[in-house]
TrEMBL record:
<keyword id="KW-1133">Transmembrane helix</keyword>
<feature type="transmembrane region" description="Helical">
    <location>
        <begin position="27"/>
        <end position="60"/>
    </location>
</feature>
<keyword id="KW-0472">Membrane</keyword>
<protein>
    <submittedName>
        <fullName>Uncharacterized protein</fullName>
    </submittedName>
</protein>
<feature type="transmembrane region" description="Helical">
    <location>
        <begin position="72"/>
        <end position="102"/>
    </location>
</feature>
<feature type="transmembrane region" description="Helical">
    <location>
        <begin position="108"/>
        <end position="135"/>
    </location>
</feature>
<keyword id="KW-0812">Transmembrane</keyword>
């Protein structure tokens, strides 16, 4: 739109100038005005395109940063899940170790009882031998 209007004015002025010499100064003025408008509009369009390109790049950078942030968040969640699983595994190992310690204590208690029973059996046997020697 900005480029079409000056071009049409310039063409109209060229038609007027070709018919008479009176409009020669008007033609120079209008052509200069049209060139100035074309330059300004082109500069405006270029500036708009540059600004739009910069905003698009900034938007893409923002999307990239959001994607990286989401990936980091997912990695953090994964690490938290792994940490919880490792903690639960450690707790299970502690429980298993406590159970094994209790079994070991039970084995020691049973072994002690068996040893005491064996000692009692030996004492009873020795007493029976002594009684049979004195009795017989």
């Amino acid at each position: 739109m900005c480029l079409c209007l000056p071009a049409s004015v310039y063409c109209f002025c060229m038609l007027l100038a070709s018919t008479t010499d009176v409009y020669y100064s008007l033609l120079l003025f209008v052509s200069a005005y049209c060139c100035l408008l074309l330059i300004c509009c082109s500069a405006c369009y270029c500036a708009v395109f540059v600004v739009a390109a910069v905003f698009m790049l900034l938007l893409l950078c923002c999307y990239f940063c959001v994607a990286v942030s989401m990936l980091l968040f997912l990695c953090c969640c994964f690490c938290a899940v792994v940490s919880v699983l490792l903690f639960l595994c450690c707790c299970c190992r502690v429980v298993v170790s406590i159970l094994m310690f209790m079994c070991c204590c039970c084995n020691v208690a049973i072994s002690t009882l068996l040893f005491l029973c064996c000692c009692c059996y030996v004492v009873v046997f020795c007493l029976s031998v002594v009684v049979s020697v004195f009795a017989g």
